[in-house]
Amino acid sequence: MSRLPELINGLPNICGHESEVKAALQPDQPVFLPKTNLRLESLSATFAIALHMHQPTIPAGADGSLISNLQQMFEHPNDGDNHNAAPFAWCYSRIGDFIPDLVAQGCNPRVMLDYSGNLLWGLRQMGRSDILDNLKRVTCDETYQPYVEWLGTMWSHAVVPSTPIADLKLHIRAWQHRFAAIFGWEALARVKGFSPPEMHLPNHPDTLYTFIHALKECGYRWLLVQEHSVETLTGQPLEFKHLPHRLVSRNSQGETISIAVLIKTQGSDTKLVAQMQPYYEAKTLSKQTISGVSIPAIVTQIGDGENGGVMMNEFPGAFERVWREVANDPTVAGVNGTEYLELIAAAGCREEDFPTCQAIGQHFIWQAVVEVTPENVAAAIAHLTKSQPNFHMNGASWTNHLSWVAGYEAVLTPMNELSALFHQTFDQSEVVDEPYRQALLHNLLLQTSCFRYWGQGTWTDHARSLFEKGMATIG
To answer: pTM of whole model > 0.90?
Structure first.
């Protein structure tokens, strides 16, 4: 297949090549197994780290044009913490230097990368080909492919539980378009894990079912989830968080679906990753058994790859130091998520035998529902919402002290209105043209979590502007 263009009439390429994207993901071949230099027999435990990177797109350019917030930071260095623009840009690029340097030293590093689609677009808008080329080096050069794994995500960093259900797959496919346009079809075919923005997992039965269904339709094998966003099928905390699990979802029609998940443990995310804590935790663990198959435990952690002094300053030294230590430690190894799952599968550990879990709070629903119908499920949710003080269907994330819904009607109402009009206008059309691309772009951008995370004021004003422009593109 021919290479996808990054831009179409000045807009990011986020739609219109769904058949090519689907074809690139078939057949579903092993990604790491043919090339991995790890052997499970000697390993007691493993660890995996992921770096999450994001900058929102905002209507703050000339005449309200769309630009990256990173560009805004560079152009207004004296506002707030905008002086961090250059360090942020370096953080987006530096893994492309770290991995080749460590490999040249004889180390065996691993890292997973999670970049939002509109960050990748923003870097191109800013002319930062240097950053993208550095990332291409460790993504496309066969020398470094065994060490780096990309994770898919929502294109514009939309939190899944409060994203209109009809838009979930649009975000997932938009990111795949963007990634393939930059790194190529072969690189896209290797993206098998998914990292939801803010680690926000929906717990409404129908939203979670639709989300998992969309992930599997889009070629994903596994999902990264926060420890406290899931529970056992009887409503208990997970017994052993250092094993892969199978996330089971049942919708209000009684249909079930499941996907493999790796458990991100709780803690101060950025600090734990910056100081490479997963390695030191892995050193304390021993082998585990799933259905008679002995496998090494896995400690999984993700944190912002650029935010905070600890990530900017401490991570480079800690990252290099740990891989030198690992080289002399025969019982612990770094892994990437897909690599680990492929290795244990080759050892005979089947996904259907993984311990099971479900989204937090769902046991209350299934205890209350005798016959699963949409009406009965809705009635149970309504009753539980009134009778259980801590029960809600807003999902769970790594920022549970913040709500993505309460107090944000000024963003959520326009967001849902624009989404509804988008689908009313375009769902019956098979034409992907300029008006469609413009409308889709604004629809997805309005759902960016930053317009709620940063509170009222400038950010909600940005949301209002995106809404008005999105409505105008539809007419």
So the answer is: yes
